[in-house]
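debug: dumping io for the single-chain case to check the tokenizer round-trip. Nothing else runs in this session.
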Amino acid sequence: MGGPPPGAGTQVPDYFVPSIISTLCCCLPAGIAAIVYSSKARSARDSGNIPAALEASKQAKMWLIIAVVAGLVVGVGYAIVMAAASNSGSGY
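debug: decoded output
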């Protein structure tokens, strides 16, 4: 009667904290998707539905990677545009 909850011993990463960080720092839309799938992975794991938890965890990881890569691409692109803009005005 007082045993552990179903799925308590199974290690399924939910990527919740990295998803929140990527949402705040990298790419909002992809980060939100990562948070949604992280939540699904956590609740499926906690309820003992390990196959669903593994699938949601995989989706959370994919969206986390997309968010980080999109954030890096936008950041590097912005830096290049700003560097080009500052160099174009130096001839006056």
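debug: round-trip ok. The chain has a mean pLDDT of 88.
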